[in-house]
Amino acid sequence: MSKIKADDYLTWGAIAKVLHNILYTYPEAPLIDNFKQEELHMSWPQLVDSEYEKQGRTYLKRYLTNWESTEAQLIELKVDYGQLFFGPSDPKAAPWGSVYTGEEQSLNGDSTQKLMAFYKAHNIEFTLERNEPIDHIGLILLTLEYLFNQLAATPEDKNTLGTCTLLLQQHLLPWADRCLELAEQHADSEFYKGIAILSRVYLAHVSQQLGIITQQTKLFR
After folding, report:
1. For the chain, which terminal residue's Cβ has fewer other Cβ atoms within 10 angstroms, N or C?
2. Cα 195 from Cα 173, distance rounded (Å)
3. d(C-alpha 93, C-alpha 189), whole Å
């Protein structure tokens, strides 16, 4: 594992926050308006300078350049989010870990219970906005934001680093790339296609920088 600076943790935490806001809930016009105003495709941190990462930025740039905050555009984007991550039919890129790690492909499976036990053991608590399995990728990203911000303040905190490493190694990385791969494949909008790519690059980069060997887990979709 390479030496990681406080600024690296701040960057990772900021990315986790943005991805939480995008992946956890349906899009709203003010959020996309802000992304366009802030030129998210330009301000997004360059992590690996790969062609794949550049492709993700290009998708995001094209979408935000053409975004005019019309009702029709928002409805179209909401429909895309729904078919990928919510329903009403089976989401094409289901955002819950147990859907991938459990043979039944159901919510609140064994891996969800293990994550609950992990959070309890490490005194991690948060209030849910809705009744939601806690292994939603957006919620785990929210937890990562918190942990990375803690590490930015105290980079030598081995306990927090250990918690962060285990969360990634055992509870997110085993299935998240498959979720994001499906999102990339099935997204109708360049917005979610670009975000899926940048999310995959982000998690792979963090994993590499932290020297994480992902726990081998059989996936069922």
Report:
1. N
2. 17
3. 14
CB within 8 Å of 80: residues ≥ 6 apart: 187, 188, 189, 191, 192
Give the CA angle between residues 115, 118, 124 to the nearest 5°.
Answer: 105
- The two three-digit tokens of residue 203, written as one number: 């998690």
Query: 150-206: per-residue pLDDT in tens?
Result: 999 999 999 999 999 999 999 999 999 999 999 999 999 999 999 999 999 999 999
pTM, whole model, 2 decimals? 0.96
DSSP label at residue 82? I
**What amino acid occupies position 74?**
L
pLDDT tens-digit profile of 68-99? 999 999 999 999 999 999 988 899 999 999 99
Of 76, 49, 47, residue with least CA distance to 63: 76
